Amino acid sequence: MPWWSWILIWVALGACALAVLLLGALYLFRKGAALVRGAGEALEQVTVRTGPEMAGVAADGAPSVHDDGPAAPAGRPGGAVFADPARMRREYEDGRERRRLARRDRRVARRRERGQMQSLRDLGLN
């Protein structure tokens, strides 16, 4: 083998190593950019959710009412132990029904948004 073939081999190996390093750096850069984007979105959600509305008071000082109704009064820990079982059962069933209807509404809205067919049961036509 002539002497210049060794130079070509080492140049090719160096070029391949450089290409692998550049592709790895590009991969890491894209993953890092996606991480920063996701962290920014999460930070926006946290700042929105920890605003004055989450404390039960709107920005204008009026009590806030969310989509799922006013917040339940915060009782003392263990208060449900001494509460009336019938009242607790009613509250549980009411909450379960509200959650079920909210899931159905989200499902109908999601399907409408995507242009998918609706279930007759979800629309109350069944």
State the secondary-structure class.
mainly alpha
The outline comes out as elongated
What proportion strand? under 5%
Sheet bearing the most strands, described? none
**Which H/E pattern describes the elements?**
HHH
Oligomer kind? single chain
- Number of separate helices: 3
Helix content: 55-70%
DSSP summary, beta strand count: 0
**Uncertain ranges:** 65-71
Characterization of the model:
Keywords: Membrane, Transmembrane, Transmembrane helix. The chain crosses the membrane at residues 6-29. Residues 57-82, 101-126 are annotated as: Disordered. Residues 101-113 have a biased composition (Basic residues). With 126 residues, this protein is mainly alpha-helical. Among the domains are: 1-55; 83-115. The protein has helices spanning 3-49, 85-114, 120-123. The protein starts with a helix and ends with a helix.
In terms of topology, how is this protein built?
Layout lengths: L2 H47 L35 H30 L5 H4 L3
Attribute tags:
126 residues; elongated; transmembrane; mainly alpha; 3 helices
